[in-house]
Every structure is written in structure tokens, then in C-alpha cells.
Amino acid sequence: MAKQNLLLATTLFVLLLSSCGDKENSETGNQRMRSGLAVEAYVVNLQPLTQGLSLSGTLLPGEEVELRAETTGKLIEFHLIEGSSVKKGQLLARVNDSEIRAKLEKLKSDLKLVEDDLQRKQRLKEINALSQQDLDVALNKVDGIKADIKLSEAQIQKAEIRAPFD
């Protein structure tokens, strides 16, 4: 308890001494505050930046890949400018696929013909004027041509070079 009283008395004594100050110094400080402080100020204007920095160096890509078509042939289209950015899946180049496209058109025409033939044979089968074997052969022709069409479409896609990433 005596220690607390001593601590309290010491604290009060220090506060009392600190509150007693030089009145003269206090008044000059107040006058200084009233008159203001001298500061240096600048006016800022919006202007375009005219300074530049010229450096030499090497740029490295984020991703790098060697591109090639899955088929061989003459390159007939090239849709890329060096240094330009591309999106994933964008067509960059195409190898000559005119023969495959012509074959695809012929297959589509053949498909229409064999589908018409299949419909005729199905009507004949309904009246028992055609054997099941003949109908199966017609169905097989339709399925074979559809498979050839899918193959030709896949070959056309292989003749295209597309961007693998952004």
C-alpha cells in the first residue's frame, strides 16, 4: 500500500512540475501558430508524360509451341501476323485440302442417293417384295458412306493449324 501511495505522489509531483512552464515561451509559441507557418507549395497540372525509357533486351514468350499440320501438303492459307496475339482455337493456317473437300461433297451426294435407295427397299420389304439380306446391304451402304464422311471431315480438320492456347 505504501508503494502505491509513493507511486501516486511521484506521478502527481511530475504532473505538477510539467504544468508549470515559462509563460513567455508559451506566448511566443501561440503567436507563431497564429501567424502561420511558411511552407513551399506547387501547382500540379495534368500533362502527358514526355519522358521515355529505351532499353535493349530479349522478350521471352509465356508459352511456346511448334505448330504443324497433321497432313502434308502445300500451305494455301496463312492467317497470322508475326507478333500478333491469338485466341485458343483460332485458325492460323491451312494446308491444301481441296481434294478431300471434293471427296466430301461426292460422299454427301452418294449418301443422298443410297438413303433414297434404302427408303425404296424398306417399302419393298414391308410388302415382302425384298429379302432381309438386300435391306441389310442397303443399310450397310448408308452406314459406310456416313463413316467415310466423318473420315473426310476429320482429314479436313487435320489440314488446319489452330492456336493451341491464348
Structure notes:
This protein is mainly alpha-helical and 166 residues long. It has a domain at 75-162. 52% of the residues lie in helices and 7% in strands. The protein has four helices and three strands; from the N terminus they run ααββααβ. The chain has a three-stranded antiparallel sheet. α3 packs antiparallel against α4 (132-158). The model has no long low-confidence stretch (mean pLDDT 85).
In brief:
The chain is built from four helices and three strands; from the N terminus they run ααββααβ. With 166 residues, it is mainly alpha-helical.
Q: What share of residues are in beta strands?
A: 5-15%
Q: Which regions are unreliable across 5 or more consecutive residues at pLDDT < 50?
A: none
Order of helices and strands: HHEEHHE
Q: How many strands? A: 3
Number of helices: 4
Radius of gyration: 45 Å
What is the average of the pLDDT values? Answer: 85
The separation of the N and C termini measures 78 Å
Question: Helical proportion?
Answer: 40-55%
Descriptive terms for the model:
166 residues; mainly alpha; 3-stranded antiparallel beta sheet; 4 helices; 3 strands; elongated
Helices and strands, with pairings:
Elements: H1 2-19, H2 23-35, E1 75-78, E2 91-95, H3 98-126, H4 132-158, E3 160-162
Antiparallel strand pairs: 1-2, 2-3
Helix pairs in contact: 3-4
